[in-house]
Amino acid sequence: MNIGRNVGIMGESGKCLNTIPAHVNRPDEGLPMPVRSLKYRLYPNQAQAEWLTGQLREACSLYNDALQERRDAWKTCRKHVSFYEQSRQLKDLRAQGLLKIPNFNCAEEILKRLDRSYSALFRRGYGFPRFRSVRRFDSITFPKRTSGFSVYGDRLRLQGCSLIKINLHRRVDGTIKTATVKREGQKWFVTFSVEYQPITLPAVEGECGVDVGLTSFVALSDGSTIAAPQFFRKAQAKLRRAQRHLARCKRGSKRRTKALARVARHHVKVRNQRSDFHHKLSRQIVNSNQLIAVEDLNVKGLAQSRLAKSIHDAGWSSFVNMLTYKAADAGRTLVRVNPRGTSQTCICGASVPKELRDRWHDCPEFELSASRDVVSAMVILAAGRAAQIVTNGDVQCVI
């Protein structure tokens, strides 16, 4: 039995399961299904870890060689080498033993990664693809059309490798399309791209305006505020000591490698804490409200100010993205409103100018005295209600 040809989760009967549970109905024919990523921890043994590291080294070499070929072709004869031209060379490279990636489609995916970089270059006009370091090439993808991976119980099978232990801490509901094996520091993970059918939550009557900030992470229109956790600032003391120790190590030494891993662990912990906070808070807001209004902030532009560290530490973009896809899955309405003037306006419509240091709102016309952030959340909610498009009695989401 060629178990490498089955892609999915093996059930108790021994068959490979790759379907959505029975209680979830598939969408109408012709409509695309949403895709989400599910990340799981891998526990390879020493031999498997060395094999995975070797695969990443081969993938990095293929990427750099393909990039060099494109650069040389353009430099010598002004010729553009396409993905298809490079893909046709893979068969001969594998036959000559110059490419040691067992799965052909996996090697094609690496060439596609380079091709996407070139497409982004032509679209943006800047950002020429660069050669990748072996230490920074950390992921390899098995596409959906390949038979190079499968999951059996608590084991992951990759073509060319023995069964790797995987921690399936949650069930995979949907059809697995791709699998990406990634190295994060000294740990290994696999991310499944799963096509699934979302389950709509029962409708509720709540409505909420969300104002993000730095003093309080979010202020809601009901008057409640949630303090900013500031995970990075709290971890700075330990991170500073770890970075000083790294700076004293000699480059290329094993001691420096261990110090580098120690610094990476601190950053990973901060990232995991921030992600966990965003997930829990966004889930709470989506479950409690039918209409959610948020500001359409230019976070990238704001992050170039003197408050860059605090803005990056808060992670506004990640939080709003979680709100967006969770609201779409749950059948909620999420509206992004123009942030212009939301902190300078009262809910009555009167203009109440304030400096950045002014944290309290006083409106003499409406006789409203409240926190600046809470009033901004109320204004955002009012703008979100006004921005809804009503067609035949159905409310559509404006994003």
Structural description of this entry:
By secondary structure, this protein is of the alpha+beta class. It has two domains: 3-195, no CATH class; 207-229 and 286-396, no CATH class. It is built from ten helices and 18 strands. Strand 11 (216-220) and strand 12 (225-227) form a beta hairpin. The longest helix has 35 residues, at 254-288. 25% of the residues are buried.
List the helices and strands and how they pair.
Elements: E1 9-10, E2 16-17, E3 35-43, H1 46-77, H2 83-87, H3 90-95, H4 104-124, E4 139-142, E5 149-152, E6 155-158, E7 164-167, E8 175-184, E9 187-195, E10 207-212, E11 216-220, E12 225-227, H5 231-247, H6 254-288, E13 291-295, H7 299-302, H8 308-314, H9 316-330, E14 333-337, E15 360-363, E16 368-371, H10 372-386, E17 389-391, E18 394-396
Parallel strand pairs: 10-13, 13-14
Antiparallel strand pairs: 1-2, 3-7, 3-9, 4-8, 5-6, 6-7, 8-9, 10-11, 11-12, 15-16, 17-18
Helix pairs in contact: 1-4, 5-6, 6-9
Largest sheet strand order: 4-8-9-3-7-6-5
Please give the largest β-sheet. Answer: 7 strands, antiparallel
The secondary-structure class comes to alpha+beta
Q: What share of residues is helical?
A: 25-40%
Features:
single chain; 399 residues; alpha+beta; 2 domains; five-stranded mixed sheet; 18 strands; 22% strand; elongated; disordered N terminus; disordered C terminus
Concise synopsis of the structure shown:
With 399 residues, the protein is of the alpha+beta class.
